[in-house]
């Protein structure tokens, strides 16, 4: 199966380790992964800030880059939700604005074959034990767009529970938003920071070494808050945990 | 232009995208929800009613036709009630044993007068098991809405199982919207202080429900 | 809406004080977390919840899409049942109608059931200007009125007050309005409720005019429905001789049977009860029972403007349960006052900018008062996709475009204050559309990474004031990918 890694612009620029982990993990599971060099940004930040029309060329570009693959895998719940939930909506809006079906038709091919990483593993590859080893105490924060947008449900948890050596501890108030919210983190910095601090305190109360999530944007906010509050915890993307093995443990 | 015409005009312009061939009400509204939650015998439905009434702090009693007057007498005596409002159509037997002054609600009674009455005894139109609700519809054994409102102590007699339905959909089917309806689920309560429920504000603070079989 | 809110600062500024007010944060956290867990239990009792939610959504949507027809039908049924129907295009007209109706009775005081619509139009202030005193009788509204405060929650307007603060308000203010609070009043909720009972009872018993809103109006029968807990509603709806109900035009349902959906979803979503203590239903007037005169004032006040917006109109499905407020992490920390409207929380953030427009600073900032976490949509009993409407309204703020205001088609200009953001968004779009540029930028960032500060100056402080910046890696992923020939050398 020829699978495209849609890494996201944030991961490409700031979190290449996550990208390497996805490649390592999928390759280990026998998947032929490609990283189309033409990829850039799905347009989510534009769309969610109110610049839908600026997001349209990015969405078209996304479709041009990825439409030829059998599956598109992304280690980001929110960018995955952008393609799956919001691309169809963009098409509908363009139609309602009297601009015809062109956008909807362009975007349609990528919508249904875009998967968030844990979805791809559980639903497409049909695995929950990916042969990982990660001897640490971990608490899991389900990020909002993965949880409520894509409906990831217990997939990430099932994957983590199968990891050798990993002790999973319950995060109190897990389903509450961490306060990132894209440009919300800047436009409503005070409220965003208060939400982040509460999330970090909840994570600390578990005694875990690691807070794991399936989205680095949220982890950037949570992690930035953790280090500012001088906690001993680390944020780690789920891909890096799942890629870690006894032979090649994650850093 | 009248405001009526102005508003209706705005509505019609706002709905320019709605085509005339849109699905009619019957097709546009699915009713895939349940008519009743769970399967129960009539006895079990009465049991559920009792449970749910009690859960919201109504005091539940049971009586048969013979025992009812004595029960009403006892409840009024325990309350120390001297004056009791009785709707004109309330079976006289129900309060026959009680040693109280029976007050009939008359139009010239002011609310202040009703406020001096200790208790009220009424029947009901229907009771809903799933929600622990009794509904009054102003029939002659229930009286005007104000009599079950102003006194602080309300005794409501529910004929079981005949007056008991399982669910809200079943209750609405039995009720006549042309009548003034009061749905009562427990004594008056408020969640206004820290979103925590406290019983006892303006309506009757004590609600006693007698399940009459 | 009410003049109380004119000149409110933008949401982020208004929220700042709340975020740092430990008492307020504690009060809100306690109250919202209490109700959240209870709501979840009450909803879980019904295994057909998704079907009820879908039926509620479809009933409301259908009604809105044929609102003209149902309004006319309602008017006919209410009139046939002995009521009088009035139409008010805006707040001023509604207030004028109500004031004239009260004056015609010769009364100078009215008792009020809690009603969002009359809050929205600032009825109490308008009546006072005509020498008419309106007494709020819902416990939380009473707390707000006595404390000369503003409501901060749809269901529990005094949610920002804890029991101790409520006791203090009762002790110091009740005397000026009527029967004073008992001198030894403590802060136990039961005693506070008792104090309200005693204080309001004399007002209920002498009231000749009652004013209410309504939760539902049934077009086919002309029945109005008020859902409440305390019995203050029953008092106001049945004891006075004249009843005036001010109701938004979106509160219609077509049939009597439709109530079977909402009477199941509203109480469980709102107070987390199987059923609220009291629900009153009346159809016009009834001989020898209740008010002899019934007036229904149908209120537009921006609703038809919202109706004209194909994305935004779903906000008119709202049944005012406040479940979205109770689950909202932003509301929990910012408090209701920051929303500058009688409609706070997520629903307020999409309703106020539609009813009032996006011209003011506060209204233009409300669509951004959300992290788009989606918790509001998940609990909404009529499935309003609040995040979708928020994003749609953000677009209206930054891009402007066609809209309807006071029934007139207008073309809105982009809001001020977004020029830098717009330029940044355009630049980002351009860079993303030209991967070469993007790559050059990434490389520059990587190469200079040791020079990056941990905190940022200027607008960047919004991030780095409370959060460290992530370290920029030695190389972006795409360079690694290319360097390792599509990762296949395995070299790291």
UniProtKB/TrEMBL annotation, chain A:
GO MF terms, alphabetically ordered: oxidoreductase activity
Organism per entry: Streptomyces filipinensis
GO CC entries: cytosol
Cysteine-rich domain segment(s): 3-83, 138-222
InterPro entries documented for this protein: Cys_rich_dom
Family matches, as Pfam families: CCG (PF02754)
Protein name: Fe-S oxidoreductase
Automatic annotation (TrEMBL), chain B:
Domain LUD as annotated: residue spans: 105-212
Cited Pfam families: LUD_dom
Superkingdom of origin organism: Bacteria
InterPro entries: FTHF_cligase-like_sf, LUD_dom, NagB/RpiA_transferase-like
Stretch forming the signal peptide: none
Protein name per its UniProtKB record: LUD domain-containing protein
Lineage summary: Bacteria, Bacillati, Actinomycetota, Actinomycetes, Kitasatosporales
Automatic annotation (TrEMBL), chain C:
PANTHER family xref list: LACTATE UTILIZATION PROTEIN B
Name of the protein this chain belongs to: Iron-sulfur cluster-binding protein
All residue ranges annotated as the 4Fe-4S ferredoxin-type domain in the record: 315-384
Stretches assigned to the Lactate utilization protein B C-terminal domain: 393-484
Domain LUD: 71-298
Entry keyword set: 4Fe-4S, Electron transport, Iron, Iron-sulfur, Metal-binding, Repeat, Transport
PROSITE patterns recorded: 4FE4S_FER_1 (PS00198)
InterPro entries: 4Fe4S_Fe-S-bd, 4Fe4S_Fe_S_CS, FTHF_cligase-like_sf, Helical_ferredxn, LUD_dom, LutB/LldF, LutB_C, NagB/RpiA_transferase-like
GO molecular function: 4 iron, 4 sulfur cluster binding; metal ion binding
Gene3D superfamilies from the UniProt entry: Alpha-helical ferredoxin, NagB/RpiA/CoA transferase-like
UniProt GO BP: lactate metabolic process
Region (Disordered): 441-470
Origin: domain of life: Bacteria
Presence of keyword Membrane: no
Keyword Iron tagged: yes
